[in-house]
Q: What sequence folds into this?
């Protein structure tokens, strides 16, 4: 009996070892890549955040100086505040526009496929191309936006859309909304298409109008997609760099100085890698908190 | 049986986690080593001695006692030598093509040497080099540099002492002040190709038409700018501005703003016995700062959307006639003539107003990478000598508008007219010594943030100057 137990134990152990080995083998390439491309750089970033360094000739240990500075001097937290505000506006714009267009494209009409393609186009262009396009559209001397608005009498003199603190931020928000709405629209559309038409028919029979159907059927029906989309979109646009850098470089002044641009500037313009790394670590923490917060709030709902 | 299996699995997981942690820990320990220069001295490149005024014959004379430079003969081994060049000239019009022409001509006469040119904007070169510096194998043999960029590059430990590769005759061939302008910490760090002091280029024809004379003070400059700001086509919109200010928040704009401040006698930073001190307080600084921003916000003598006007835009505005004055190096003349040949004979230049030297000599050229091999260094210096002397028509300099760094070059016909007068007067009157501050990038960023926040209406002048003082104080904590 004891021998049988031992034999069975050995067999089970062997089976387990074999399946474990093959499991480790399957995940190890991804794990190695993750360690090399994500974990190692993050750990290195944490390490250099404790130094005043140019990564080459200067390694002066400063401890938590840069972390303390981030919370005591306004240049970091004001930039984070601006970035949060930017993220909220852009994501809100994506969802409003995305919901609207997804609802329209969910209806049957002639040319629906063509419109689906057209509405996807902003997402297909690279961010730098979109940024350059809008920079030229909004150019104060040669841009067609000023030309068009002057012709219809909305403005009388050329407006510097990207050169004024009051207008630069809304201008880049608008451009980012235009660039990013197709992803949200597509995901919501796919969610809407999974909702059974019977529910809408039943609601219509019960006397529900379009708005009530939207609130009580469509929104709950796309909630799983909505949650994922919200988290992804928020984190992506919190980290936005290319569009804003190309259009305004973070200016004028600090009007569009998102935290990603600030970190890049600290590292590669000012060669203050330690400070940039400290800020990057804090931003990582903020992104993690955002995703956690969303999960908690949406899970409770 | 099952609990034993679970225990075994848990132990294996713990062991795996320990091994991974150990790998990460050992890799972190490897990251902590200080990068050393080839001589093993990691600290010397952070020294901040001002080179122009120090004399250390034993150190400065990096040539040998007999005055002979190190051999620049790269052919000894017979192997192909690749000289990689990170070049800002090559990315610029109209003179970029001559960089490739000269390289090709050199290769034809030196078949064992290959010149690999990578074009890059001068505004991006420090960023690129700082990223490349973390892996010395990635560094180019030569990289474009200038008087205001060299301190940061020197701080990265990138720069070889070029003085040990060129003989006294070659040094004597450079114009007065050029070698000093290329020296940091008793080391010649730039092989000079041209000098780019700043001056104001102006439309002589418009000045004559308006009855204006060349201004010597900034107040007179403003009066000239106001007189030249007008609605030239009568449609009720201003379409000509007096001053083509570079208002963008990048190196081009920041450098010009620094030149303006210096011309007002404001030092910005001083080296007080090895400690950097900011000189941004006081009414004089605020007054000068306000005057600059008022040119846009109050007097509107600069083009609309000033924060979007970078050097290329400002130079084009000037070339196309939208503006009548531009504060720039002489390269703006090259852009002007190339874009609008009708401007020949219509341009002049004058010394930056203000009564104080507003510009460094700003030698431009190439730095020699300390990490290149001896053969690469020798070939690179030989190539640079060829670059400077192979073209008797001096097309690179003529087409770009740049002033040659050599004595012979500065006697060329093309720089004898009114258009270069301001530059030659500036050089004759004497330029500022090199500001050997490794944190120049951060300082310029702080200055740029200050003026652009006022241009955009984000801050008042007082608020911007207060923020600037705070930013510079924070910056200096890392450099003192």
A:
């Amino acid at each position: 009996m004891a021998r049988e137990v031992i034999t069975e134990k050995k067999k089970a152990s062997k089976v387990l070892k074999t399946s474990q080995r093959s499991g480790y083998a399957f995940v190890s390439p991804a794990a190695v890549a993750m360690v090399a491309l994500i974990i190692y750089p993050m750990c290195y970033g944490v390490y250099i955040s404790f130094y005043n360094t140019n990564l080459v000739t200067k390694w002066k240990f400063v401890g938590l100086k840069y972390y303390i500075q981030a919370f005591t001097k306004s240049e970091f937290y004001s930039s984070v505040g601006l970035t949060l505000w930017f993220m909220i506006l852009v994501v809100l714009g994506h969802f409003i526009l995305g919901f609207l267009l997804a609802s329209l494209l969910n209806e049957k009409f002639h040319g629906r496929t063509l419109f689906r393609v057209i509405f996807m186009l902003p997402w297909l262009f690279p961010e730098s191309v979109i940024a350059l396009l809008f920079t030229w559209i909004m150019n104060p001397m040669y841009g067609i936006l000023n030309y068009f608005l002057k012709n219809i009498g909305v403005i009388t003199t050329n407006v510097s859309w990207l050169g004024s603190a009051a207008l630069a931020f809304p201008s880049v928000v608008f451009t980012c909304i235009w660039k990013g709405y197709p992803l949200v629209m597509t995901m919501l559309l796919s969610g809407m298409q999974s909702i059974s038409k019977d529910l809408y028919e039943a609601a219509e029979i019960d006397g529900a109008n379009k708005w009530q159907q939207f609130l009580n059927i469509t929104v709950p029906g796309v909630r799983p997609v909505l949650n994922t989309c919200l988290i992804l979109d928020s984190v992506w646009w919190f980290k936005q760099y290319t569009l804003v850098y190309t259009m305004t470089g973070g200016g004028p002044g600090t009007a569009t100085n998102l935290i990603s641009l600030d970190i890049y500037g600290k590292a590669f313009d000012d060669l203050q890698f330690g400070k940039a790394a400290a800020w990057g670590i804090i931003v990582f923490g903020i992104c993690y908190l955002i995703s956690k917060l969303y999960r908690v709030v949406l899970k409770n709902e | 049986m099952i609990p034993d299996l679970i225990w075994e699995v848990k132990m294996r997981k713990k062991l795996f986690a320990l091994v991974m942690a150990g790998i990460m820990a050992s890799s972190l320990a490897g990251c902590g080593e200080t990068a050393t220069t080839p001589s093993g001295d990691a600290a010397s490149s952070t020294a901040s001695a001002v080179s122009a005024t120090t004399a250390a014959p034993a150190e400065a004379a990096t040539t040998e006692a007999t005055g002979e430079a190190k051999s620049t003969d790269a052919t000894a081994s017979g192997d192909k030598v690749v000289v990689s060049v990170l070049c800002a000239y090559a990315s610029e019009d109209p003179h970029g093509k001559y960089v490739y022409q000269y390289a090709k001509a050199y290769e034809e006469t030196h078949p064992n040497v290959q010149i690999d040119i990578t074009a890059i904007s001068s505004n991006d070169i420090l960023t690129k080099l700082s990223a490349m510096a973390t892996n010395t194998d990635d560094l180019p043999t030569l990289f474009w540099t200038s008087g205001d960029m060299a301190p940061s590059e020197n701080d990265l430990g990138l720069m070889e002492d070029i003085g040990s590769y060129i003989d006294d005759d070659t040094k004597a061939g450079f114009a007065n002040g050029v070698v000093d302008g290329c020296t940091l910490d008793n080391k010649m760090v730039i092989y000079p190709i041209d000098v780019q002091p700043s001056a104001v280029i102006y439309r002589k024809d418009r000045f004559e038409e308006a009855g204006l004379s060349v201004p010597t003070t900034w107040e007179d400059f403003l009066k000239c700018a106001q007189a030249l700001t007008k609605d030239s086509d009568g449609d009720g919109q201003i379409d000509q501005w007096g001053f083509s200010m570079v208002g963008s928040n990048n190196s081009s704009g920041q450098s010009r703003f620094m030149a303006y401040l210096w011309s007002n006698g404001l030092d910005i930073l001083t080296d007080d016995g090895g400690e950097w001190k900011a000189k941004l307080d006081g009414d004089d600084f605020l007054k000068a700062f306000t005057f600059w921003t008022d040119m846009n916000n109050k007097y509107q003598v600069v083009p609309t959307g000033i924060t979007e006007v970078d050097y290329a835009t400002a130079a084009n505005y000037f070339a196309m006639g939208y503006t009548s004055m531009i504060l720039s190096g002489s390269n703006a003349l090259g852009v002007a003539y190339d874009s609008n040949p009708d401007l020949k004979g219509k341009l002049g230049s004058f010394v930056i107003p203000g009564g104080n030297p507003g510009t460094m000599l700003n030698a431009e050229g190439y730095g020699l990478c300390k990490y290149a091999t001896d053969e690469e260094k020798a070939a690179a210096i030989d190539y640079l000598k060829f670059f400077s002397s192979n073209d008797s028509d001096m097309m690179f300099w003529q087409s770009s508008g740049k002033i040659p760094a050599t004595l012979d070059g500065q006697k060329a016909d093309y720089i004898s007219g009114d258009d270069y007068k301001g530059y030659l007067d500036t050089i004759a009157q004497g330029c500022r010594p090199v500001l050997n501050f490794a944190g120049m990038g951060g300082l310029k960023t702080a200055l740029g943030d200050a003026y652009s926040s006022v241009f955009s209406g984000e801050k008042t002048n007082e608020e911007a100057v207060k923020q600037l003082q705070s930013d510079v104080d924070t910056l200096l904590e890392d450099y003192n």
User: Anything to note?
Assistant: The two ends of chain A are 55 Å apart (CA to CA). Residues 155 and 238 of chain A are 33 Å apart (CA to CA).
